[in-house]
Amino acid sequence: MTPIDPLTPKFTDAPLSAAYEIALAQVQDWEKNGDTVKGHKVGLASRAMQRQMGVDQPDFGHLTASMFHLENAPIPAGTFIQPRIEPEVAFVLSRPLRGPGVTVAEAAAAVEFALPALEIVDSRITDWKIGIFDTIADNASSGGVVLGSKPSKLADVDLRLAGCNLHVNGELVATGAGGAVLGSPLNALVWLANTVGPLGVTLEPGHVVLPGSMTRAVPIQPGDTVVATIAGLDSVTAVMEGTDK
Predict the structure, then answer these.
(1) What is the pLDDT of residue 245?
(2) Cα–Cα distance for residue pair 26/184, rounded to 1 Å
(3) What does each C-alpha distance from 94 to 59, 91, 147, 208, 210 come to in angstroms?
(4) What is the pTM of this model?
(5) What pLDDT digit, counting tens, does each position of 204-213 carry?
(6) Is 105 exposed, middle or buried (CB count within 10 Å of its CB: 0-12, 13-18, 19+)?
(7) From residue 138, how far is each of 3, 166, 227, 229, 242 by CA, in Å?
(8) What mean pLDDT is reported for the chain?
(9) What backbone phi and psi angles, to 5 degrees, belong to 169?
């Protein structure tokens, strides 16, 4: 895969709805080729991520079946172009959510359980020189997802105060907390439901929602082992296949 030049300079006057139309056309093409939507993600939900990427608002993207990788199973080295990794709380829904008008109470009631997760973000834009139009059109820079295997009920963890440590090859590289994600990951779920609803999208039962990173995104390389530990949710491990495999 070869990255392309940024789109933002060419579409300075285009509405963000045009970027979402580009992303949706891409997702529809994936579906025509046999992939399936299995959830959604909120990108750029924390101030740390917005500062890092040079944007001032969240965005969203689709998660497809091909993006999900098993914990501890080597992820093929050629899967990504310029990957970075983010620790997140993953919500698995038990009932549909569709805005506008979804409340925090309704969002919490729709969550069956939460899992620790690692999202691998990847940009098709050269050197990550993205604006908000670029990342939206690029399906919110979605790349891959690794879910932990220990489900937790929302009542058993305070998502706002849950701390997170991110280790790469045993070295602590970032720390954060759930409150960094729009004040609470649940707020990001509400934002998502109320944003995609007017576009005709429903968050479906059984789908996974990634509400946003608890830390900055960290670059990763083939051969890296990444562990995110989230208080109250246990840990999740992603293993990047080495180039010699």
Answers:
(1) 40
(2) 30
(3) 23, 10, 17, 10, 15
(4) 0.91
(5) 999 999 999 9
(6) exposed
(7) 11, 25, 26, 28, 26
(8) 90
(9) 55, 40
